[in-house]
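WARN no homologs supplied; continuing
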Amino acid sequence: MPLLNKTRARSEAPYQSPSKRSAWSPARLALTAFFAMDGFLFAAWVVRIPDIRGQVSATHSALGLALLCLSAGAVATMPVIGRLCVRYGSKPVTIASVALLSLAVPLPAHTHSVLSLGAVLLLFGAGYGAANVAMNSAAVDLVRELRRPVMPSFHAGYSLGGLLGAGVGGLLAGTLSTTWALALSGALGLAVTAAAGTALLRGQAGRPAQAPAARRTAGAKAGAGTGAEAAGKTPATPAPGVARSVRLLVVLLGLTALLDAYGEGAIADWATLHLTDDVHATAGLAAAGYAAFAFAMTAGRVGGTWLSIRIGQTRLIATGGLTACAGMLVVALAPSVAAALAGLVLVGLGLANIFPLAIAQAGAAGGPRGVATASTLGYAGMLIGPPVIGFLADAVGLPLALTTVAGAAALAGLLPFAVRSRRPVAASH
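OK structure emitted
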């Protein structure tokens, strides 16, 4: 999925319709299983947070600090995993990361103090952050092999896994103890890792990925007849100007992911409360509102590949951002429950493909390190969204505070045009 092209038409030209056999290869199925397992394991932990809080006798503020350790572990790990993917290849790192996440999931059930919970969540967050960077890096490589923008389908797998994990966890909450539920989730994660990892490694690649700018520069040097490789010299690195342009491009794409994740995090933590307190929905309807948002996001990602091919990635992100902006204004300002629920559906459809496409483009431009940079920025958006909304809600009220999500979504839709203007120009082919 090369980004370093002169025109939009050329940048989207490499995507072609592959054969049915290659469209859903074993490697793609295996990687989708990893994404789904990642979502399942995280949801399995989330639905047990109330039980864990009682187990460690944590206040709300103490629990918040412990949960911050999860985020800290993820953010600290992401840049390191990008470098490991460059050195060892994204596929082996994906397998190791999901295995670590599976082993860490049962640990919170064995903690009995806030301090021990925070320490365990550091490890859990490290596994979660590592898995997300490695899986997305492997997905970028597979997108390039298939010559088809299938990144949204992987994130649809994550969303489906999260829905399944939350549903199963909720159904079994009164049957299985927290210890058994998380232990079985971890065991399932290890089983899927073993099965999917075998299929993933049988595919091509596994070799360390290289950023497109570096590949293009090295190829140009070789084609120019310098004889550097024949002489045993190290291929030239990208020109400083190109390298700076690539870094700026990756940062802009990371900011796009951040703005999207800001909205996702805010809705996850505040939408239900807004529906009950401000729109006066019943508890059941408020829960249905978030479920509608989650299903809409999953459906949007399932259709993301088709839409990317039909209208192009830039237009899809722009349309999604404006759709989410309109939907969020309805959610925040509409006085009726029905209108707010419809608005949440629009927000889910609008935000669905912004994050995966931004990460995919960052990986196409900067390789695994590009994925790591954009993922770190995106995850930061998930972190800052809920507390920013909380502070603003105390100052101006929750409905007005939620309008910042509309502004962030609109900006996320406009940033791709700035991204396109910042693409470094590649040499003519």
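DSSP finds 17 helices and no strands in the chain.
OK
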